Amino acid sequence: MQYLANPTRFLKLANAVLPYVWAITILLFAVGLYGALAASPADYQQGETVRIMYVHVPAAWMALFVYSVMALASAIALIFRHPLADVAAKTAAPIGAVFCFLALATGSLWGKPMWGAWWVWDARLTSMFVLMLLYVGYMAIWAAIEEPHRAAMVARVVALVGFINIPIVKFSVDWWNSLHQPASVFRMGGPTIDKSMLWPLLVMGLAYTFLFLALHLVSMRAEIAARKIRQIHIAEIGER
Hints:
By secondary structure, the chain is mostly helical. Helix content is about 75%, strand content about 0%. The model has no long low-confidence stretch (mean pLDDT about 90).
């Protein structure tokens, strides 16, 4: 962790691994989409609409995962003063917000034929909506506060406090009555989903993960460059 505290070292590593991360991402999406659209069967109750699952479920997983990354990075920045931790948290937020929006949108499309409604205010959907608001609020802090150090201090607190919502989203279907189905993949008794549907879902989950990693590295490179330009601009103003 301390080795990567140096932005130059981080950029060197990011530039080296990014081509491989993109290649793995493309390969995983190719395999996952083939499994989701061609190899896996239609559900005996849901029919072809079950294929929305291969987009919706990984997006929901990633919405939770990315916010957890933000909270961890914020904690590292707060405790260890790691110079790139705030960069990691800030650049992860827009990506996580897209995943969260995708989960909400595809969930609505899936919910209409299954529940007869585009939206219901049950525990899982409400807590996911709250997560979306947390993403938007976190990004708004960085946009509203011009001074980076002050913005980082406020954003850290928001990310850490907002992490309380993550277990609520995860266990909402177990704690409250919900139209949303309970966990069928990551559960104590093992997956309940058929193997013909499970493997494409897991591959798509990995594809989403590597997509996040690639986009996150690209975003961090851009943020580091923007901060360097800002420092040069401030130095030039100070010399005048």
